[in-house]
Amino acid sequence: MEPRRDSVRLEKLLSPSFTIIGAGSTSDNPVTDRALYLCNALRFSWPRREVRVLEVQLLGDVAVVRCVWRGEAPPPSDVIPIPVPEGGAFEFLLTDVWVRRDEEWQVVARHSSIPSTGR
């Protein structure tokens, strides 16, 4: 799929109040907001990821989704400051909180682990 079209799809999936805490976060700057996340999604080359859902907990119009994202190329080093060998595998653990509004699901919060490498 063309990157521009993917960004339109991503914008629809992210709630206006979307935040992420995780890889690249620090105690001084723990939260990234929707605007920065979307900017980085367009700015950097992100490898294709495999997603394995571990658990979905449905609580009315809220879902907590725990999953693993795995890729075969290094994440951009200036977004995620970890050493990944060129062409190396990486894996994130993610927890997303999704909310259904007007029959549409959007992610409002994400927490991700620091990627493991060298599989």
Write a structural description.
The protein is α+β, with helices and mostly antiparallel strands. It has a single domain, classed as Roll (Nuclear Transport Factor 2, Chain: A), CATH 3.10.450.50. Strands 1, 2, 3, 4, 5, 6 and 7 form a seven-stranded mixed sheet that branches. Strand 3 and strand 4 form a beta hairpin. It is globular. The model has no long low-confidence stretch (mean pLDDT 80).
* Helix/strand structural class: alpha+beta
Termini, distance in Å? 28 Å
Largest sheet: 7 strands, mixed
Given as residue ranges, the uncertain stretches (5+ residues, pLDDT < 50) are none
What CATH calls the topology is Nuclear Transport Factor 2, Chain: A
Features:
119 residues; alpha+beta; Nuclear Transport Factor 2, Chain: A; seven-stranded mixed beta sheet; globular
What is the topological layout?
Elements lengths: L2 H11 E8 L9 E3 H10 L5 E11 L2 E10 L18 E12 L2 E9 L3 E2 L2
Parallel strand pairs: 1-6
Antiparallel strand pairs: 1-2, 3-4, 4-5, 5-6, 5-7
What would you say about this model in short?
With 119 residues, the chain is of the alpha+beta class. It has two helices and seven strands; from the N terminus they run H-E-E-H-E-E-E-E-E.
